[in-house]
Structures are given as structure tokens and as C-alpha cells.
Amino acid sequence: MMIDMKYFNVYYFCHLANESMGKFEYASTNAEFTEQQFQIEPEEFPRISVLREYCSWLVDRVFYEQASLISNDQAYDFNPISWINQAITKYKQIVISTENEFKFDEDDYLETYNNYLEYINKYEDGLFYSVIYDIATEVEYILFQNRDFLLRFNEQQAVAFEDNPRTRVYIPEWVKRAVLFRDKGCCVFCKKDLTGLYTLLEDNEKQFDHIVPLHDGGINDVCNIQLSCKECNLKKSDSSKTSTLYRSSY
Ligand SMILES: [Zn+2]
């Protein structure tokens, strides 16, 4: 799949995700996602990763929260409706017109916001969520590179499975490809080049390591896998661990 990156405030959302994940003061907010996500029987290695689901949830939640703050006359960082319009123009090349058609209720911003989400469906069904999905795809693309974030993210998700661990399943080829390219074919701990081993060893499943181990509640999701050589895997000995080492691009 190709992503046509538009970078619409994408780093703002990445920053919120990165700063809130694993921090005590945001624990209950991020736990809301975890609870929602795992009320249904989870898929193993879903194509739309748990990380992507989180990014969509986060973007949607930020828009809603900001609307809610405005309606309660509290401080706010941005006007959600103006951001939605800018995003729709950027991602869908649709210019929303509110002249004479849409009534803003100054006294109840949240109601106005909810009505607005319905109003823009006239342009295209599900327009708002389609734009959220596009932004979330870009946010996920960037956060997927950040293994330190992934560790904290997976520890958060693991809360749901600590008492009911996921079982080990075969890691799909597309997950291996994604992880192999992200980690540039090297063990994330000692930087040993595993590209030769990847093709030579039939037993290459062992090079793909769960960041948060299954027995600690780790999930079978592309965002919970990293490359690790056997030696480092042994040293890691079933703890939740990653590294912040990256091979420079040039
Ligand atoms: Zn290693």
C-alpha cells in the first residue's frame, strides 16, 4: 500500500501519543482505548493493526475533547471545525461551505460540533471518519518507527491480557517484511546483521521477537514485533524490552 503523506498536524498527534503513553496522569485516558479494543475477541496479527486503531481513536478523541472544552468555556488549543475543514481540503480536495446552510450555535459548541459532523456527510458519506483514518495512517507510519513508544504502547495493551495470555501463532510474512525493513535487517540490541540469517535459516521465526512477551500479556500485532538475534533474545529472557538504537539512513 502506498501512503500519500500530507503531514496535516501529524506530528502534533504523534507528540500527544508519545507524551501520554505510559504516563500516570494519562493512564485512564489511554486505558479507555484498551478497554474498548479488547471487549471483542482480538484477531491475531490484524491487517489494521491495534496501533492503527489507537491512532484513529486518538485523533477522533482529540477533536471531540477540544470541542467539549470550547463548549465548557475552557482553554483550547485549536478550533476543531476549522481543523476538520483544513484537513478535508488537504486530503479530499473538498471545500466545505457553511454560508447560509449551517447554523453555528454559539452557546452550545459541542452540539454544533456534532451537527457539523453530520452536515459534512452531505458532501460525502462518512467524510469525517475517512479523513481521521487518513491522518491516523500517517500518525501510525511515524509512531511505528519509534520502538520506545511501541514498548510503552504494548505494555498498556498488555494490561488486558496479563491473566489471559495470547497464544503463539505463526507470524505472517507481511509482518516479518514490515519489521525486517523497519529494523533494517539488524538485531535491535547488538545490531548484528540478520539479513543473511533471515534467508538462510529455516528457523527464522526465532529472530522475530515480541517486544512485550506473550506471557506478560503481549499481543500478536505488527507493532509488538522486533528483530532480535538469538543471543540477545536469550539475554532478554522474556522481559519487555527494546532499544533506541537506529542505523542512520546515510
Ligand atoms: Zn543481538
Molecular structure report:
- With 250 residues, the protein is mainly alpha-helical.
- It has two domains: 1-143, no CATH class; 165-250, no CATH class.
- It is built from ten helices and two strands; from the N terminus they run H-H-H-H-H-H-H-H-H-E-E-H.
- The protein has helices spanning 10-20, 27-37, 50-71, 80-92, 109-119, 127-143, 147-158, 173-182, 195-200, 230-236; strands spanning 208-210, 225-227.
- It has a two-stranded antiparallel sheet.
- Helix 3 (50-71) packs across helix 6 (127-143).
- The longest helix is centred in the N-terminal third of the chain and has 22 residues, at 50-71.
- The model has no long low-confidence stretch (mean pLDDT 91).
- It binds zinc ion.
- Zinc ion is lined by residues 187, 189-190, 192, 228-229, 231-232.
Keywords, separated by commas or semicolons:
250 residues; mainly alpha; 2 domains; two-stranded antiparallel sheet; 10 helices; 2 strands; 2% strand; elongated; binds zinc ion
